[in-house]
Automatic annotation (TrEMBL):
<dbReference type="Pfam" id="PF12756">
    <property type="entry name" value="zf-C2H2_2"/>
</dbReference>
<keyword id="KW-0863">Zinc-finger</keyword>
<protein>
    <submittedName>
        <fullName>Zinc finger protein 277</fullName>
    </submittedName>
</protein>
<keyword id="KW-0479">Metal-binding</keyword>
<dbReference type="InterPro" id="IPR040048">
    <property type="entry name" value="ZNF277"/>
</dbReference>
<dbReference type="InterPro" id="IPR036236">
    <property type="entry name" value="Znf_C2H2_sf"/>
</dbReference>
<dbReference type="InterPro" id="IPR013087">
    <property type="entry name" value="Znf_C2H2_type"/>
</dbReference>
<feature type="domain" description="C2H2-type">
    <location>
        <begin position="146"/>
        <end position="175"/>
    </location>
</feature>
<comment type="similarity">
    <text>Belongs to the ZNF277 family.</text>
</comment>
<keyword id="KW-0862">Zinc</keyword>
<dbReference type="InterPro" id="IPR041661">
    <property type="entry name" value="ZN622/Rei1/Reh1_Znf-C2H2"/>
</dbReference>
<dbReference type="GO" id="GO:0008270">
    <property type="term" value="F:zinc ion binding"/>
</dbReference>
<feature type="domain" description="C2H2-type">
    <location>
        <begin position="277"/>
        <end position="308"/>
    </location>
</feature>
Amino acid sequence: MIIEHKFVIADVKLVADFRRYILYWKKRFTEQPITDFCSVIRTNSEAPIEEQDNYFLLCDVLPEDRLLREQLQQKRLREILEQQQRERNDTSFHSICMFCDKEFTGNRSVLFNHMARDHAFNVGLPDNIVNCNEFLAALQKKLDNLQCLYCERTFRDKNTLKDHMRKKQHRRINAKNTEYDRFYIINYLEFGKSWEEVQSEDDRELLDNVEEDWSDWEEHPVCAVCLFCEKQADTTEKLCLHMKEAHGFDLLKIKAEHGLKFYQQVKLVNFIRREIHQCRCYNCKETFQSKTELISHMEVTKHITFLPTRSTWDQPQYYFPTYENDTLLCTLSDSEEELTAKDQSEDVPVISEDLSDLEALRQSSVLNQLLHEENND
């Protein structure tokens, strides 16, 4: 189009559906002169008239073009969300593990959880992936070509490749390879931007505000929400006391009896959040029409008090929060002194001052955990 028609489209990579975009403007150009829509850029303006060229620039400065781009983006997002939902509900999934040739059927999450647990290969929460079969095919093709999934080097045979990926901890995909962007739902939310670009924008926004005067800013307590109802509390002690008295769930006792470390507590909280969100009892697996019915059932049957077997909830998939910015996760700690209810001399604030815990939680957030890897070999 540039060479033959001297026609230029600005930010073409941000157009969600290029075919529909072109068809729309092709029709409009038959209805009105192209100069009604495009800016005219003259090249070689100082040269003789016969050597000058006029180029036509179409961009979203034109309200009609901006509206079209937004509509196409929204349509694309709706289509991809519908595709994702179909895949999440699909029970006819069938595939073979690319590392051990074990066969899996049912839901795709079974395969992804197996690869994370048994092969330390974690591509993120299965629910965040779309076009799953194409994704797996792309990964399998790289392995068939004896190519490392992370550094993308090629090796002479399969055993050498396996040893390399194991020793170098390259059992993950390369986040900078944009080939994978189309398989993650977050890359469709703001078309033309990857999750890394979105995150870097957030980081720059923070850096830009470093020198602002915060002297008149008053801090308000951030509250953590109960696992079973909408009750909020601004300290760990208050929230744990509420869950114990109102629901019969003693988080501190469970933590002590089972010897739960920080990451095990994270997985337990995320597991319970997920089950309650889906209105499903985490002990008997019965599903209810509402959260109120579920909690009533769990309290009457005492199913709320006891945990299911550890293998049910101690799974890699529960590293990922059910709710973004779940403040309860920031109160968890390995420290017995900090979390023992009877020996506490003061309330523990919801906003943790343990930087290692905050860093761990930051790494388990939605964006960063899309490509999270378990390092246990």
